Amino acid sequence: MSLNSTIARVTDRIRARSEGPRTDYLARIKAAGDAGPSRAHLSCGNQAHAYAAMGQDKDALAAARAPNVGIVTAYNDMLSAHQPYENYPQLIKAALREIGATAQVAGGVPAMCDGVTQGQPGMELSLFSRDVIAMAAAVSLSHNTFDAAIYMGVCDKIVPGLVMAAATFGHIPAVFLPAGPMTTGLPNDEKAKVRQQFATGEVGRDKLMAAEMASYHGPGTCTFYGTANTNQMLMEFMGLHLPGSSFVNPNTPLREALTVAGAKRAAEITALGNDYRPAGEILDEKAFVNGLVGLMATGGSTNHILHLPAMARAAGIILDLADFDEVSSVTPLMAKVYPNGLADVNHFHAAGGLQFMIRHLLDAGLLHKDAKTVSGEGMAHYIQEPKITPEGLTWVDGPVDSQNEKVLRKTADPFQKTGGLKQLDGNLGRGVIKLSAVAEERRHIEAPVRVFHDQDDVKEAFKRGEFTQDTIVVVRFQGPKANGMPELHSLTPTLSVLQDRGLKVALVTDGRMSGASGKVPAAIHVSPEAADGGPLAKLQDGDVVRLDALSGELTCLTEGFAERAPVQPDLSANQFGLGRELFGAFRTHVGPSTEGASVVL
């Protein structure tokens, strides 16, 4: 089928909008690529320093005739998703020796867990860590001794930061190696029920702790469809993973075989061979539009409304909220994975997963089938799934039919006809709302507001029984300039309880919500943010606000609202403690959320 006209129009608009910066970007990476293998330009002293500790690989490195692959790793053993990476470097080096190539760990990047910092001061460093990761990866690769790079990262800010680095070093190929999700534990709906029971005082902390430990129980990503697993989906839709590799569990033979295959593929696509695939050419307009389609079709994380524009800017491409909105308008929601449903990513993968989804999106004309990928030309590679046979790892045709239509459906019979995100606009600014888990009757609310400057104050008001009528909860001064734009996911149980009591409630904020948030309508990333003089800073308790996710309206209806002076709160408490004092320059220079909330781009 020919390409959908809306997808084609959005792609053309992005291409036209990006013409200047993209042209400059491609010229830069071409010049870097034309300079040839980097090691040829290093002095003997430079190279001796680089190879001194490489043991059996030293002679091959000094000869500089075979590819040398740089490994950028986010390994640590506090994050379950990154713990499996501990032994990847040795596996990769052994695999590359088999084909006469070499590998070195170029460096590590920080990897923090939003699950650990949720509702804590450390969360105020979370979004900024993405830019730190990009810079740390750039330092890792600045030694200029690598013909390709392998990026090992999974979770929320790590993959976007690594993509920003891969685009910056766009003259060398980039292969992303996932670690996979942990096996299924306590069902997500049961965990959510215990969280709500704890919020209302029905159960104690012992029951809550038992439920959480039964849910997050082993190596691998959390199994709900939040930002980490959305990252993995994007890497397949954007052609940076090997096909079918995103959701294979850690410490399995197939996971190890895919790691070996990914390492060898990185060596095969360098400028030293006949299939040169620089990262900057893969990360083009088509790749980012395919990523937008994947985000909508799966009901993915709202955090990528921030990350995708930042990732794209690193490759000279300019995305706008309108692009998300229009792609969503024609992309059917094909998956129901928690928090959008009861299933987890293991159930999604077993039902047919990304290969089923990509097949049917291609058939419907909703993806650019001719996109360049690390696996070859075109997205047809990504309807194949990996299998281990007696002859070794191979790829076979993926499923045509869903194995569980409660989890995964074809484009012709989706869970809803449009994707999971909607742009909001009005006299309160521009923002977005995730709809894939919000019931239709909750997508329009017109109610008085309660204004807060701290999420803990919302919880305290709840405990005092102050929410007795339909209410729009406004939590402002949560944007990147104010305090780093923390996630406000810890409000979800509280607001869910109010909703379950029959009240119409919503959240409006210039902050973020977790990729795991869903059933409470939330207007997030509102820009301009309150700390930058945005309209949210003019709201007062009792003002009536209309949030209409159907028409895309976010408006204060109270007369005289626009003429008020914005509130100027004391934000000094956000400046110090747990490393926040080191990020003052980030808060000062960060860009708006509509452009990715980046400091470095």
From TrEMBL:
Catalytic reactions on record: 6-phospho-D-gluconate = 2-dehydro-3-deoxy-6-phospho-D-gluconate + H2O
Family according to the record: Belongs to the IlvD/Edd family.
Sorted UniProt keywords: 4Fe-4S, Carbohydrate metabolism, Gluconate utilization, Iron, Iron-sulfur, Lyase, Metal-binding
UniProt cross-references to InterPro entries, sorted A to Z: 6-phosphgluc_deHydtase, Dihydro-acid_dehy_C, DiOHA_6PGluconate_deHydtase_CS, ILV_EDD_C, ILV_EDD_N, IlvD/EDD_N
Cofactors that this protein relies on: [4Fe-4S] cluster
Enzyme class: lyase
NCBIfam families named in the record: edd
Name this protein carries in UniProt: Phosphogluconate dehydratase
Function according to Swiss-Prot or TrEMBL: Catalyzes the dehydration of 6-phospho-D-gluconate to 2-dehydro-3-deoxy-6-phospho-D-gluconate.
Domain Dihydroxy-acid/6-phosphogluconate dehydratase N-terminal: 67-380
Listed EC numbers: 4.2.1.12
Cofactor comment text: Binds 1 [4Fe-4S] cluster.
Name of a matching Pfam family: ILVD_EDD_N
Residues covered by the Dihydroxy-acid/6-phosphogluconate dehydratase C-terminal domain: 406-597
Residues holding [4Fe-4S] cluster: C155, C222
Pathway: Carbohydrate metabolism; Entner-Doudoroff pathway
GO MF terms, alphabetically ordered: phosphogluconate dehydratase activity
Lineage: superkingdom: Bacteria
HAMAP family linked: Edd
